[in-house]
Design a protein that fits this description.
- The chain is α/β, with parallel strands linked by helices.
- It has 13 helices and eight strands.
- The relative contact order is 0.11.
Length: 384
């Protein structure tokens, strides 16, 4: 078990009707920028609840943050923050809105080029405080310091991280998920599942507490993921899925253990090239990672097979085959496509993706940094 330090100051306010508590969470003496995406919050009643809770506050709005938040869009929002002297940001929506808002918070008072934070040339020294109202369980962004930003003209999707952009609070009201389209429900379960797998399916390092937490969360998703997709009015299911997505990426389940993140690294390039939903790229890539890296991950694959899927009979290699199949079958049962060809992608994707990863310094990757150019090509060749 590895040494670790852990600190997470985010206040979670969970439960039905909790949006009304915004008035006790958002500072009244600050000008607030309300950020959101395509406007679904104005159709499902969330926007009205937020505005009612913040009646009397000085609020400006910035909508239109994309599903993969665009660098130029976020720069425009940051310029408005500077001009209007915004003192607090409130993200209302899913993880992309919050990711974008974190980046806005970091660059609003930065005198240099905002891309500096994405290519490693600089780190934020200040950030506008922020909070969130989450409406889409998936990314876990509400309780971590991470974000991902896209730049379409460069075909790039890059991670960003700073403790300065940890939200002060996150409101998790499962009622906000009732009107989510089926595709977003499917994506939310897959995104959460793969977040857990990136931190769990690594080495057997004796981090038993983290392993057990991960396995428990995976079982919740396996047992209730389909119900979440099919029964949007079941608030017990929605609440548990929402909390599972937060727990998947708030840092707790990685403590004392190694993490991988190769599936995400490959998936981000697929999204940048083809516009595929982030979660769908993960559903495409993860079975390939499991197959190609099965020797390195053998101990954990066997543990995963036994504890999460109840696979205990047969030779070890046969059990690994079964659990890889079960994992992909689970994604497909939810309603996801898991092969590149199902999206009409017929070009030489393995070479294109490996070339891009090589050119921007994403290789080697994996928990041991042993996944190189040829391994990425092999993984994607299995996913055509």
């Amino acid at each position: 078990m590895r040494n670790f330090e852990f600190y997470n100051p985010v206040k979670i306010v969970f439960g039905e009707g909790s949006i009304a508590k915004l008035k006790s969470l958002v500072p009244r003496d600050k000008k607030v920028m309300l950020t959101y995406g395509g406007g679904s919050i104005k159709k499902n009643g969330v926007y009205d609840q937020v505005k009612d809770a913040l009646s009397g506050y000085r609020i400006i709005e910035f909508g239109g943050i994309e599903a993969n938040p665009e660098y130029e869009t976020l720069r425009k929002a940051a310029e408005i923050c500077r001009k209007e002297k915004v003192g607090f940001l409130l993200a209302v929506g899913g993880g992309s809105v919050l990711d974008g808002t974190k980046f806005i918070a970091a660059i609003a008072n930065y005198a240099g080029e905002a891309w500096d934070f994405l290519d490693g040339k600089a780190r934020p020294s200040v950030a506008i405080p922020l909070g969130s109202v989450m409406t889409l369980p998936a990314t876990g962004s509400e309780m971590n310091a991470n974000a991902v930003v896209s730049r379409r003209e460069m075909k790039e999707k890059r991670p960003f991280n700073s403790p300065l952009v940890l939200p002060q609070f996150a409101i998790l009201d499962p009622e906000t998920t009732k009107t989510l389209p089926e595709s977003q429900r499917i994506n939310g379960v897959i995104d959460t599942y793969v977040h857990i797998m990136e931190q769990y399916l690594t080495t057997d390092g004796g981090a038993w507490v983290s392993d057990n937490l991960s396995e428990g969360l995976l079982r919740v998703l396996v047992e209730h993921g389909k119900a979440y997709v099919e029964k949007p009015d079941d608030m017990t299911v929605a609440g548990n899925i929402m909390w599972a997505s937060t727990m998947a990426l708030n840092g707790i389940i990685r403590l004392g253990a190694d993490s991988d993140w190769s599936t995400h690294a490959i998936g981000h390039i697929l999204t940048a090239f083809y516009g595929l939903d982030h979660a769908i790229t993960l559903a495409i890539v993860l079975p390939g990672v499991m197959q190609v890296m099965r020797t390195n991950k053998k101990s954990k694959l066997l543990q995963y097979a036994k504890v999460v899927w109840g696979i205990t009979d047969g030779p070890e290699e046969e059990r690994i085959d079964k659990v890889i199949h079960k994992t992909e079958e689970f994604f497909r049962m939810l309603g996801a496509k898991t092969k590149l060809s199902e999206f009409g992608i017929t070009e030489d994707t393995p070479t294109l993706v490996a070339d891009k990863m090589q050119s921007i310094g994403l290789l080697p990757c994996g928990e041991h940094r042993d996944m190189d150019y040829d391994i990425v090509k092999e993984i994607l060749s299995l996913r055509k």
